[in-house]
């Protein structure tokens, strides 16, 4: 880890600029469209072989203008799946707990909603047969830009190679030229209202 005062590398600086641009575009998405897109995205995901076969699915609780997951989380539970959602640890690593419905969530730092159910530990993500994760953009090779915590780079490092790792995006956030740093972990797929795309 570089010391806090060290200048950022070119890729890290380019990520900051690209994040600003993508977040500004998200703020222009009309709210009704978010709901429609979330329903279409959930339908595409539940139709995939990987999610249909999964006993355990790691997902996330969407906030703001992120691709919505509230219906997806309910549908996964109704389909009998064990659903894991993350909590952010002080070092920005992720812990995991089971999603037991909206009442099992509470407001947390950074405007997030986090589970109140017992913590399972950072390694619990390795028990997921499918990982559905947030992001701001993905390249056609599967390089993902996140919110800048490096949380999912750590979590994806614990997931067995070959696991379905799918980032949820808005249309227009796929096929972006994402700056890459050595710690970045690729995803195997992306989904938006337009459908699922296998990457890499
Ligand atoms: N809904 C949702 N839940 C999520 C994520 C997400 O993107 N969406 N995350 C996806 O990862 C994790 C939380 N994301 C985080 C992202 C950044 C920082 C953070 O502290 N960032 C530093 C700036 C880092 C930098 O740019 O150098 C900061 O704000 O001070 C913390 C958590 C876990 N849960
Ligand atoms: N495996 C790791 N262990 C420790 N720190 C890490 C790891 N991976 C990434 N980081 C740190 O996290 C910081 C942010 O990384 P990056 O900008 O790639 O986040 P991101 O992928 O956009 O965010 P997120 O994964 O939270 O959505 C980097 O400065 C990096 O040092």
UniProtKB/TrEMBL annotation:
Assigned keywords, A-Z: ATP-binding, Ligase, Magnesium, Metal-binding, Nucleotide-binding
A molecular function GO annotation: ATP binding
Amino acids binding substrate: 61, 66
InterPro entries documented for this protein: FTHF_cligase, FTHF_cligase-like_sf, NagB/RpiA_transferase-like
Gene3D superfamilies named among the record's database cross-references: NagB/RpiA/CoA transferase-like
Cofactor(s) the record lists: Mg(2+)
Record-listed E.C. numbers: 6.3.3.2
Catalyzed chemical reaction(s): (6S)-5-formyl-5,6,7,8-tetrahydrofolate + ATP = (6R)-5,10-methenyltetrahydrofolate + ADP + phosphate
Highest taxon in the source lineage: Bacteria
Residues involved in ATP binding: 15-19, 144-152
Similarity comment text for this entry: Belongs to the 5-formyltetrahydrofolate cyclo-ligase family.
Name of the protein described by the UniProt record: 5-formyltetrahydrofolate cyclo-ligase
Species name: Nocardioides euryhalodurans
Native organism taxonomy: Bacteria, Bacillati, Actinomycetota, Actinomycetes, Propionibacteriales
